[in-house]
Amino acid sequence: MFPKTIAWQDNKVLILDQRQLPAKEVYLECADAAAVTEAIKEMAIRGAPAIGIAAAMGLALGALGITETDYPSFYSELNKICDSLKGARPTAVNLCWALARMQGVCEANEAKPVEAIKGLLVAEALAVLEQDIAINKQIGANGATLVPARATILTHCNAGALATGGYGTALGVIRRAWEDKKGIQVIATETRPLLQGARLTCWELRQEGIPVTLIADHMAGTLMRQGEIDLCIVGADRIAGNGDVANKIGTYTLAILAREHEIPFYVAAPLSTFDLTIKTGEEIPIEERDPSEVTTLGGRSTAPEGVAVRNPAFDVTPHRYISAIVTEDGIIRPPFEETLVRFRGADGR
Ligand code: MRU
Asked: Among residues 237, 244, 275, 315, which one is catalytic?
């Protein structure tokens, strides 16, 4: 079984605090939208689909707290909460996708009493969570067909149950290949600076007994050259119309290394991660995070005081390095400009 990343309980949102993993399994109790916004910003919850779900639940919490009873005032208050949730993290499009879906429910039910709309918003947020788990299982089933028996699979960051409503995208493919008894094993990159690979992916896989070996990020090239990696699979935060993929910083480097060593490089993501309103990855906003994430490790300083730092949290991998994108609707192959059009999300983005 996979860990419970997020839950709705007694009109509160419970979030497994990923900053404390693997040392402690602690749930944050968020009683209002501001607390959920903070949890996303500070990465108590992270991973594109998971922050989409958190945003939907945060907005539902926010709706419950609105005292206005006429629709126009309620809608205007709801939009203010939406705007602050949207500002929490800029790169993963799932956050905007989930909020747009919630706003759509509100607008479609304009004629109903505000109290009824609040109930519908809570139900919608729960549906976003439940559907995400089902979508991931389908991604897993589709992607496992790409995994040969006894494959050694490299993954980067955490695109697992912790990054989603459950089961995971890239780790969903790995989970399914394991359930299918393919005898696979995983190489997890540690994923500096925040160590999502070491702390989260290794923790998740070990809980299920899936063999995993941890490497420092820069060791991947050597393992590839030595023939120790059969395929790479990662998640995504936003996929542009031409198939360019924004994902955790370091993905681009791995994709180039994989091409050099003729190793397939797969991306697994739900359709809610596609942003077909943008043509290329150049248009994807890349979050730059606090320098202290780079200058410290485990709370200890690892660099001279005041040193200049760059800390982009994501990079863009050009589509030419991607062998295929696995979605719940099937496997998309190059040329992505042509094949992606057929996989437009349900909301037409
Ligand atoms: O900064 P993070 O930890 O939110 O970054 C997460 C990633 O880059 C994941 O690979 C991506 O969101 C896909 S999660 C299914």
From this structure: 237
